[in-house]
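FAQ
Q: What does a multi-component entry look like?
A: The components come first, one per line:
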Amino acid sequence: MAGQLLFKANGVGKTYGLNTVLRDIDMEIYSGEVIGLIGENGAGKSTLMKLIAGVTKPSMGSMELQGQPYSVNSILEANKHGIGMVFQEQSLVANLTISQNIYLGREKKYATLGFVNWAKMNADAKKALERIGIDLDVTKKVRDIDFAMRQMVEIAKVLDVVTETANGHAIILLDEPTTVLSDDEIKALFEQVRKMKEAGNAVIFISHRLDEVLEITDRIYVFKDGEETGVFPTEGADTNILYERMVGRVATGEFYIENRQTVATDEVVLQVKDLSVFGAFNHVSFDLHKGEVLGLCGVEGSGKEDVCAVLIGDVEPTSGKVIIGGKERTFKNPYQARHAGILSVPKERRDEGMIGILSIENNIVISHMEALQNGFILSGKKTEGIANEWVKKAGVKCVGIKQHINQLSGGNAQKVIFARALESNCPVLILNHPTRGVDVGSKEEIYTLIREMTEAGNSIIVIGDTLDECIGLSSRIIVLKDGLVTAEFDCPVGNKPTQMDIVQTMM
Amino acid sequence: MNNKWEASMETLSVGEQFAEKVKDNAKKDRIRRMMPIILLVVMTAIGAITQKNFFSARNLVNILYQMSIPLVISVSLMFVLLLGSIDLSIEGVMGFAGSFTAFLVQNRTNSNNFGIFGILIVLVICTCVGALTGFIHTKGRIASFITTYAVGQVMTGVAVLVYNSTPIAVTEPAFVTISQGRLFGIPYLTLMSFAIFAIGAIILNFTAFGRAVYAIGDNETAAASTGINVTLTKIKVFALSALMASAAGILMCIRLKLGQSSIGLNQMFPVVTAIVLGGGSLYGGKGGALSAFVGVLVYTELTNWLTLMGVDTYLRGVIQGVIIIVAVTLTIERTRKTISK
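Then the predicted structure of the entire assembly, as tokens:
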């Protein structure tokens, strides 16, 4: 390590409520180096970044900056210490100009008697951009420039903020900066990263693309389930070991109730032929058989979510066919998809799945109300009967079926949403992160429900919360990478592919 | 700083603290939901104490009569507001319905005499207009307040065109009978309004459609993901809203025996305010038949009381405005992060 020690984390961790998302992280950052952070979604990379950047505070452990204890309450305070983060979700204000954005919150130094000297600010903004090799009209509004440029402006802003205070010893955090950039733009970004590094700054770089991490970084930290599973110098890094450390230990087949995994029948219930959505995924084809669980794997942005969005009617495909019940269909909305027999359990339970104001009972029957009416009037007897049956069967812990769903814990609310999916009588169910934010006990009950669904002849497409889960549940897996299908695996009980097999086709 | 929790912080685990907070929120929520009823009791008490005539049979019937048209309009609004939308065309549709009814039944201006069929024609036309409004709003993805404002303008204009700028006087004998008739001392018009409101309440609380309206208003994304037909439900709501507005217009026409566009004037916003007083939300998902009823009742009592007190018209506006702000402050739920727009 050439430079001096800039930053040190000692046993840092973070808990939200009872949920530990990061534990016991040790990290050292030296000046003039680029550090890569890799790991699956939810491994804790972004959480660690947020702790360092002052977005949230650690629940345990301590941090040091240049030998001094480091504890900040806000991004601004972190900036004053020379630490700045370029956010995954961009933090620019679209209806302000580029220069106004770069100096947002710091206008004071350009103001006399409250009047801002725009010309001076613009000139400085131009210089800030030139420093990273960008020539832009800084009086343009941010909404008028493309995403790649916004990313550059964001970087220029952060760089300007931190260099103002930490001359040559800034720490810049880049959280997946390349996802929206083209190859040329990535090259230009890397050029800038190298320049920052040569000037003695440190850069932390998060990416899903291992090749990028190997290209730009000096050292790599690997994360898995909120824990640090290894630190490697990039030079001579063994990709196999990196993969292995990312996937970590494997849960037993028992956990996923593999003994009840069904063998798919030959009957095809859903056919996807050469399906494409412009800018999301191309030429995806597969058959879904009666009674099987088909897993879709891929990193974020690989297109797996978009495939599901087409199947449930959220997005219309650019080309290709979806054939269900022997008929070619295009769904304009989820209502049409449900009538054709496809229903989803959405990923963001609180935002997309639960209807908080309604009771457990109403949340269960809502996808099936037409059948429960006597004339116009909804039959309270029928809905109550169904709700009671499901609450018992799915083991929902609640006061009663009239309780509002938003008073339930994550796991119990999810069981209610599963009950709704099962009650809908749709033969094809799409489960998007079925166990996200659910405790271990509820997970097991949800896996049981999934097994029951397939035993009853339903077909399931699942996007797993973890790769391990996806392998454990599925009888077949399709892997997407950058919008294309890169591999297909059969996963019969006792002969399942390993996570390594799949990760290698994902990244 | 909120120091309410500080004492028990050391003794409870974070999980237990969270449970405490949930319990506390539920309690606050219960109190807030009781507020409209408390408001009603307080208003009634103030009325009874300050005006000995307030509780006279005559004044009670009077209050019921005064609240009848707002009650019909509140059916429109309780559905629309539950969606988180607004229907600014209510006043225009009312004006049109009244004017066109006068045009179709026996009147002094022309020789039309369609009787009850005239009323049915008006109801059908207005329902279609509402459905069209809903269609434009959903398919064109144009905000409801723009769409409905524009449709309201059109309907007001058409209303005036119908009677060619001289309002039509109705001579239909049935209108006279209905407007003067009473059952157990309560005017027919009041009874009809309450019946219409009851039907609206039943649709909202006991049909799949009503459940879908609540679901969409609370969380449209989630409602869509359950496979509810969001577009169709919204179109139905606007059709129903226009149907109810036209019913209100027809009742006004019966009451006044005159058809003119201005019968809708200033009828909508008081009812919106009343529903919010009753615990409804302009952002959708909250409210319902009870909050609409209590809100309209409180609002009417307030107006009635100010009249009984003999307060000057302009001063009455001032007092009414202040009381409404105080009352709404007590009943609405607030979010911590954003100030409402």
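Q: Is there any commentary attached?
A: Sometimes. For this entry: Chain B has one domain: 33-331.
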